[in-house]
Structures are given as structure tokens and as C-alpha cells.
Design goal:
Layout (H helix, E strand, L loop, with lengths): L2 H22 L5 H6 L6 H12 L2 H14 L4 H25 L4 H8 L3 H33 L4 H51 L4 H4 L10 H11 L12 H17 L1 H4 L8 H37 L9 H7 L4 E3 L22 E5 L5 E3 L9 E3 L3 H9 L4 H39 L5 H24 L3 H5 L4 H18 L5 H24 L22 H18 L5 H10 L12
Antiparallel strand pairs: 1-4, 2-3
């Protein structure tokens, strides 16, 4: 069977499984809809958390980033896994003991202020919509390539799938759907990695295969370093970022992970405080399976890509190259008219390729914005995981499996983010502020209407992606670090922290991070992104969340000390949530 038929079969079976679980786990109360009735086992919650966390960015983009940046890409591995250590030690058990549905709910009650709750709602919406836009676009790209439908239709299909299990089941349906999605995505990631590791090094364990010898006795990483040097790139195993920027990016990703609202809400779904800590541990182990494999996938993909295209005739390129060329995610322009692909360390085109309708001498898709550099090849980083099995000539069912895994990763995270958006509106805004007397049934209806509207909004971001959103999806972590992380940590460990301090810190933190992103990354409203030489303190936009977070903390602590302390009952709550005796049954709220 060809790849497209295999893809229809595997994607169809996985979608049928998701729909079946959603119907089985449908929500009948707001507690089911928001926190799955607080009845999820630690292992199931760990699997759901892992799927919620491992988005299209983890499944598709992370290995691609490492593949192109080499050693420098390790910051993503350290930051994103380290964030779960922070969650397990600093946040998860205490938030579970506090017993609220959402992060804005925690902030509103801890800081005894609807103003604080409103600021938290705005922050949650900014972070979640920034993150979810890329997920929906990722769904459209996977459908477009593997199922041969338009990207717009792919996004619409993805919207419909997410809507079914989120609308019917809420957090309960999403949780058990994410358990299935974790199984699908990790199987889809590991199978081709194992195949290629055996193919290249004879070792079935990718993590070991990455550092193994090839048949000629050369170590794989040494070979890749040599290939990089030949093409004018830095050695793959050598880094170029400053020590400060590596530290800043890693810490921003860690704090951002620990502050992402769709991740934190997962720890409200378990019965007891100690279960929250256990589920964080399970999630870390399950995430580590993919995260320790990603560097190996990056090495395999980078080596295979270079060997496939370097100084080769375009006419001899395999089918995968021309298939991806049609998506605009890879392109070749013959600058010296020799019919061969010249690949080197420079930009082949200015920004994203813009294709002309006509074809060139060799059948290539012509582009209208090539640079004057010698490099003739443009490769989008996001294709490395998806195209890797095709480059390695693996069986068609393996190629199709990767497509199913990519969809599982994108849809699982999209569902979690959309639920955060829904609960921020229906519970934190409507129930807690605008209409506190509505019944449980009315609130559940409002939650479902909210998630319906959120799905439509997310789909529009996927179909018509604003350039500034598409450019800053990865920076959602900086936004979370700059806004939520200080408010949550100080709210748990500093009983003197008051509403004035928290509100001031969150507003300043997220505003500064948004400004820096717009000014130095996105080119929003005609502003050209500023060069690296103009970065503040030598800090990249990906790492600037640390600066904004530190400023948030300084302002929060300073303002809180200059204003009235919190009420005594709030201070008692802060003392109580840190008492170990809370390992028993937690609040039912």
C-alpha cells in the first residue's frame, strides 16, 4: 500500500479511538468538565500530562531545531525537562492542596482580588492563544502533506476532532484521550528512530546509536562534524551561544514550563496531594523517553539529509524531496546553472520561499527571493522529523505512523490549551465575577459554548496565521515565565505577598515580554526585528523571559512591602498549604 492509504488507515483508527474515549468519558458536571472529577490515577495523569506537554513543537520542531543548531539546541532539552522538576518540587503538590480549578482561580483567591483574577485571565488567554495557533497550523501542514488536502481543510478537520472530545468530555474526556494520544505519539516517534539507528549503526537503542561507530569505524558524530565542516557550518558538537544566553533560555523555558496554565491544571485532576507529586514524576519519566531520543533523531536526520543532497544532481533527487518541495518547506534554486544542489552555511532565500507558478529548467519550483549567497538549498526545520523516515527509505507504514503521531501531539496540546481558554471565560470570568449565582448546569453550558468559540478562534489562527503569532509560538514560555511563575511561587512561599504586589508584577512582566518579542523578534506593524547586536544584556528573545520574570519578582516584593499585608486568613491559608499533613484527601473544590 502507498503512504497515503496507510496514513488514512492509521489516522482514521486513531481518530476513532479518540472519539470512542470522548463518548465513554463524557462530562456530566462542571467538576468533570474542569478537573475530570479529581479522580484520575497518578499514572494516567502522568501520561495525559506528557501528551499535553509534548505538542507539535516537541514532536515535530524540537528535533528539527537541534538538527540545525547542534549543541546549542540542548537548551530546549534542559529547559523543558527541568521545568517538570520545578513543577514536582515547587508547584504541583501545593496547588493541588489549595484545591482550585484553574490558575486564575488560584491567583484570584490567593490574592483576594477579582482584579488579580482578571489580570490572570488575560495572561492565560495571551499565553494559550499564542501557543495554540502553532498547534492548529501544524495539524494543517501534516494533513496537507500526508493526506493530500488543502491546509485550510486540514485545519478544519483538526478543529472538528478537537471539538468532539473537548466539547463532550471536557477535562475528563481530554484526559483519557490524551492517554491514548501519548501511546500513539511515543510509538510513532520511537519506531522510526529505532529503525534508523539499526540501519546506520546496528544498535537498536537510538540514544546509544547516536554515539556509536559506523561500519567504517568512524563515530557517527565525528562524521557529522566532518560533513558540517566541509559545508562551512560550525562543528555539530560545538556551540556558538554565549554562556549567559544559554543560561537565560534554559531558565526561561524551565520557569515557563512550570507556569503554563494548561500544564498546571493537570495536577488538579488527581484525588490527593501526594498523587500530584507522583503524576509529575511519571510525566517526567514519560517525557524523557522522547526527549532523550530527540538528539539521536536529529543526528540521524541531519546526516541523512546532507548525504542525500550534497553535490547531487537535482534530477536524481528521490520522490520525498519533490513532494516536500510542493509544500514550500524545502526548495532549491540553481544559482550557478550546473544542475547540482550546492548546500552551504548561508541563506538560500530571504525569509520564507515565495514560489512562482512556472517551473525551472530541471523541473524545480522557481522562487522569487533568492539571496546572492552560494547556498542553493532552503530546508524548513519542521520537516526533519516528518521527512526523516522517507529520507531513510523506511516502509510506508512507518512514514504514515509518523503523520499519525504528529497529529496526536498537536491535537493533545491544542485540546488542553482550548480547555484553559474555556475555563478562563466560563469559570473565572463568568462564575467568579459576572454571574456568581448561575447553576452548575448553566456553568457547564457556558463552558461548552466557550470551548466551541475557542476552537473556532484557534482554527482561524491556523487558517490565517498572523505573522507575529507564528513567529512567537515558542516564546509562549517566556510569557508564562514573565507573568504566572512569580505570582504562583510567591503566592505559595511568601505569605506577606499581597494583591498589589502580584497585580503590579504580572502587568509589568507580561508587558515587558510582549514589547521585547514584538521589537526584537516579530517585525509586527512594520517594525523590523532588531539585530542580535542590539539585544538587551546580550539576551535573545527566547531567553528574555528571565529578565521580565526577575523584574516581576522585584516589583512584586517591593510593592507588597510598601503596602498593607494580606488579611490574616489568607496568610493562614499560605501557611497551611505547605504543611505535609496535606498528603491526605484534598479539598473537593
Amino acid at each position: 500500500m502507498d503512504v497515503q492509504l496507510w496514513t488514512w488507515i492509521l489516522v482514521g483508527l486513531s481518530f476513532a479511538l479518540y472519539f470512542g474515549i470522548a463518548i465513554w468519558a463524557r462530562a456530566s458536571s462542571t467538576k468533570d468538565f474542569y478537573i475530570a472529577g479529581s479522580g484520575v490515577s497518578p499514572l494516567a495523569n502522568g501520561m495525559a500530562t506528557a501528551a499535553d506537554w509534548m505538542s507539535a513543537a516537541s514532536f515535530i520542531s524540537m528535533a528539527g531545531i537541534i538538527s540545525f543548531t547542534g549543541y546549542d539546541g540542548s537548551v530546549y532539552l534542559m529547559g523543558w525537562t527541568g521545568g517538570y522538576v520545578l513543577l514536582a518540587l515547587l508547584l504541583a503538590p501545593y496547588l493541588r492542596k489549595f484545591g482550585k480549578f484553574t490558575v486564575p482561580d488560584f491567583i484570584g483567591d490567593r490574592y483576594y482580588s477579582n482584579t488579580a483574577r482578571t489580570v490572570a485571565i488575560v495572561c492565560a488567554l495571551i499565553v494559550s492563544f499564542t501557543y495554540v495557533a502553532g498547534q492548529m497550523r501544524g495539524v494543517g501542514i501534516v494533513f496537507s502533506q500526508f493526506l493530500q488536502v488543502e491546509i485550510t481543510n486540514g485545519v478544519i478537520i483538526g478543529m472538528a476532532v478537537v471539538l468532539v472530545f473537548a466539547f463532550i468530555g471536557g477535562m475528563k474526556g481530554i484526559t483519557y484521550t490524551q492517554v491514548a494520544q501519548y501511546c500513539v505519539l511515543i510509538f510513532a516517534f520511537m519506531v522510526p528512530a529505532i529503525f534508523i539507528s539499526i540501519q546506520m549503526t546496528g544498535n537498536p537503542i537510538p540514544q546509544i546509536g547516536m554515539g556509536s561507530q559506523l561500519e567504517n569505524g568512524t563515530f557517527l558524530l565525528d562524521k557529522l562534524d566532518e560533513l558540517h565542516t566541509q559545508l562551512g557550518f560550525k562543528e555539530y558538537t560545538d556551540g556558538s551561544k554565549s554562556t549567559w544566553d544559554v543560561f537565560a533560555i534554559t531558565l526561561a523555558l524551565m520557569a515557563g514550563t512550570a507556569g503554563l496554565p494548561h500544564v498546571i491544571v493537570r495536577f488538579f485532576t488527581v484525588p490527593r496531594v501526594k498523587d500530584a507529586r507522583k503524576s509529575a514524576g511519571y510525566a517526567l519519566l514519560l517525557i524523557a523517553v522522547l526527549y532523550t531520543t530527540a538528539p539521536a533523531v536529529s543526528v540521524f536526520a541531519r546526516t541523512n539529509l546532507i548525504e542525500t543532497v550534497m553535490d547531487k544532481e537535482y534530477s536524481s533527487m528521490p520522490a520525498w524531496f519533490k513532494n516536500w518541495e510542493n509544500t514550500g518547506l524545502i526548495s532549491w534554486t540553481d544559482k550557478n546553472n550546473d544542475g547540482k544542489i550546492q548546500y552551504s552555511n548561508s541563506d538560500a532565500v530571504n525569509g520564507k520561499p515565495e514560489f512562482k507558478e512556472s517551473r525551472g529548467t530541471y523541473g524545480e519550483r522557481l522562487i522569487s527571493n533568492p539571496t546572492n549567497s552560494k547556498n542553493e538549498l532552503y530546508v524548513d526545520r519542521d520537516i526533519m522529523v516528518l521527512a526523516n523516515p522517507e529520507i531513510a527509505k523506511l516502509p510506508n507504514w512507518v512514514i504514515a505512523l509518523v503523520a499519525a503521531g504528529g497529529l496526536a501531539a498537536a491535537l493533545s496540546t491544542a485540546a488542553g490549551l482550548l480547555l484553559v481558554i474555556s475555563t478562563s471565560i466560563s469559570h473565572d470570568l463568568l462564575k467568579k465575577q459576572l454571574k456568581p449565582n448561575i447553576t452548575d448546569k448553566q456553568e457547564l453550558l457556558a463552558a461548552r459554548i466557550s470551548i466551541f468559540l475557542a476552537v473556532i478562534a484557534a482554527g482561524l489562527f491556523g487558517i490565517y496565521p498572523p505573522g507575529f503569532v507564528a513567529a512567537v509560538v515558542a516564546l509562549a514560555f517566556g510569557l508564562a515565565a514573565a507573568s504566572f511563575f512569580p505570582a504562583i511561587v510567591l503566592g505559595i512561599f511568601d505569605k506577606r505577598m499581597n494583591k498589589e504586589g502580584a497585580i503590579s508584577g504580572m502587568i509589568v512582566g507580561i508587558s515587558l515580554m510582549l514589547f521585547y518579542m514584538v521589537r526584537y523578534k516579530t517585525g509586527f506593524y512594520g517594525l523590523e526585528p532588531r539585530p542580535e547586536s542590539e539585544w538587551w544584556f546580550g539576551t535573545s528573545p527566547e531567553g528574555f523571559g528571565v529578565i521580565a520574570m526577575l523584574l516581576n519578582i522585584i516589583i512584586s516584593v517591593t510593592v507588597s512591602r510598601l503596602t498593607a499585608p494580606p488579611p490574616e486568613d489568607v496568610q493562614n491559608i499560605v501557611e497551611d498549604i505547605r504543611i505535609p499533613s496535606g498528603a491526605g484527601k484534598a479539598s473537593d473544590h
